[in-house]
Design a protein that fits this description.
Blueprint (H helix, E strand, L loop, with lengths): L2 H61 L4 H70 L1
Helix pairs in contact: 1-2
Keywords: Coiled coil
């Protein structure tokens, strides 16, 4: 195999590396999007559940003339759960966001490296063609 063929094989591998990088990035990005969706879904389900319990508690509180202290404690507990859910949502959202940013940073870095290698390989081919053309003229 001559030098030109070696470089062409190298270019093919580099292009395949770029395609593979793109596929891996899309797959990872899709997983991150699914994480965002799952987190949002879980938060809405919990919020809806807390609202249902709160409505039931208010209805029960109006019907019962018993211990308002227990009723108030239950409502405070629901508020506490709701608040903790919101806080945990924000923590988990930040974690996913950090993963997303890290993925993008690594992707850009690797893509830049691969594109630079590919550009160098194309420059080598161009130099070989120019050398061959120069030798044919002589």
């Amino acid at each position: 195999m001559d030098k030109l063929e070696e470089i062409q094989v190298k270019i093919k591998k580099q292009e395949e590396g770029l395609w593979s990088l793109e596929d891996d990035y899309r797959t990872a990005k899709k997983k991150i999007e699914e994480s965002y969706e799952s987190l949002d879904h879980n938060r809405s389900q919990l919020t809806r559940l807390y609202e249902e319990f709160e409505n039931i508690a208010y209805d029960f509180g109006r019907q019962k003339s018993g211990d308002d202290g227990e009723h108030h404690q239950f409502l405070m507990l629901l508020e506490s759960y709701s608040s903790e859910t919101s806080s945990e949502y924000l923590r988990q959202y930040a974690k996913i966001e950090a993963k997303d940013e890290e993925l993008q940073t690594q992707y850009r870095k690797e893509r830049s490296r691969l594109e630079k290698e590919l550009e160098e390989s194309y420059s080598q081919i161009k130099a070989l063609y120019e050398l061959e053309r120069g030798q044919k003229k002589c």
